Amino acid sequence: MHCIAYIAGLVASDGHLSTRDYRLKVVTYDKRFAEYLTRNTSLFKVYRHGKVFELYCYNKNLWNTLNKDYRIPCGKKSNTIQPPKELAPTEAVDFLRGLFDGDSSIYIVQVKLRRKQQVYKYLLPRISFKSKSEALTNWAFNQLRKLGLKPYYSNEPTFHRFFLDGFTNLRKFHEKIGYRHPAKRKKLEGLLNFPHNYYAPVAGEGVRNSSPAEEGGPEN
Q1: What is the value of pTM for the model shown?
Q2: Domain total for the chain?
Q3: For residue 127, what are the contacts with CB-CB under 8 A and spacing of at least 6?
Q4: At 173, which helix (H) or strand (E)?
Q5: Domain at 161, CATH number
């Protein structure tokens, strides 16, 4: 695996282009992901600093490609980075995959729903994506919609975030984008095998008005 669009997405999310030379860096806390990248890209050398794995690559052509074609600025970039322009559909998916390998989380949330005059707790699988760049977040959001997924935004004070909720969304994500990050891929596959309709009544609670957030957004 040596896909420039994927590397670009990964650097855009969890990486850095040096201002002093043609070095690029990716940072991860996951040892298996660091090993995966060094084994499958033939680009990076990995160094461990405590719990952090830093992957470095010195490559002038790649540095220029990421900087000019994928619009990744050198130096600090979290608030100013812009999405790439005019990517082919397959490149857009690879770039998106790199973003999600870096800047997404997968987990289950407990929400409450009304069912037949009773309030039930409902376990909802979720993928969360966040970035300080509004432009990059909006680009990822729109790409997901083009692929038939149904993300929705979350209002946050210091960054931009959206969610993908429910088994239908997560299954489409797995089929059309997927993770290369070993731990995230394993977790997503595990969630997709979770019982799809887990409800349990909440003791002492009858019908009440539930907010959209409690109902897991537009996709259950």
Answers
A1: 0.84
A2: 2
A3: 100, 104, 105, 106, 163, 164, 169, 170, 173, 188
A4: helix 166-176
A5: 3.10.28.10
